[in-house]
TrEMBL record:
Coiled coil: none annotated. InterPro entries: Epimerase_deHydtase, NAD(P)-bd_dom_sf, NAD(P)-dependent_oxidoreduct. Residues 16-224 form the NAD-dependent epimerase/dehydratase domain. This is NAD-dependent epimerase/dehydratase domain-containing protein. It comes from the Bacteria. It holds the Pfam family Epimerase.
Amino acid sequence: MRCDAPGRKWMVIMRVFVTGATGWIGSAAVDELLAAGHGVVGLARSDTSAATLEAKGATPLPGGLDDLDVLRRGAAEADAVVHLANKHDWGNPAESDRAERAAVETMAEALTGTHKPFVVANGLSGIVEGRAALETDSSPDVGPGASRGGSENLALDYTRRGVKSVIVRFAPSVHGAGDWGFVAFLAKAARDRGVSGYIGDGSVEWSAVHRVDAARLIRLGVERAPAGTRLHAVAEESVTTRAIAEALGEALGLPVASIAPEDAGEHFGFVGGFFATPMAASSARTRELLGWKPTGPTLVKDILDGAYGG
């Protein structure tokens, strides 16, 4: 055990099993957990990933998302599980969804009856329409054929079976220097096309969070979130797609232009569908529940400071 901070209660040090441990969000989460004094076991698909984890002081567990026996063992031997890995096979989303559901079900079964924390990642796409998503909004994705295999609702179902399931919904932009997510794809499209584009009038709204703030929320979710909680990793509730395009244009020295919706797929590639999708969300309930206070730079500041080239 250790004291979390002056005047705070003593906190149990845990052995945390992390999937996606060397990914963009996962690597920051591993750093955050280790800095807080927790032990980390990270799923490692390669020798390079294993060496990266060992260099940080984490223990690698060789395997991938399809190695269900490895996932079962990692979960069973841990005090808490953080599931961040996803195949992100944009060419075959059904395969990504299948693997995601199988992984969540396998680890949840291993945790059944233990009341151990099981933090599961999800996105904000499709949660609600016409307004910012709230933590109280349930995901409409249910069952094996749903997006991400319905893994959010599947994990929450296990709270009735003695698993302390916690959902963390991430903003579409988890940004920072080195990001290889959606904004990095938008920056690449801008460089390839010679113009930084937004779709239509650019009024579609995204939420955003800095990677370090997201990692801190994951750690707080492991340590403090009650079973059945949905958390929103959102620092900025709303950033318009036009503002993103204008910042990329300024950073990259490129003109900015509207792209017709029917041309978005050709201009942006697969990310065009996401860029046209509203994904604004509130994190007021998350902040109140866990005392989470994002401190990282805004998405536009990161872009203008060269996080995506310039």
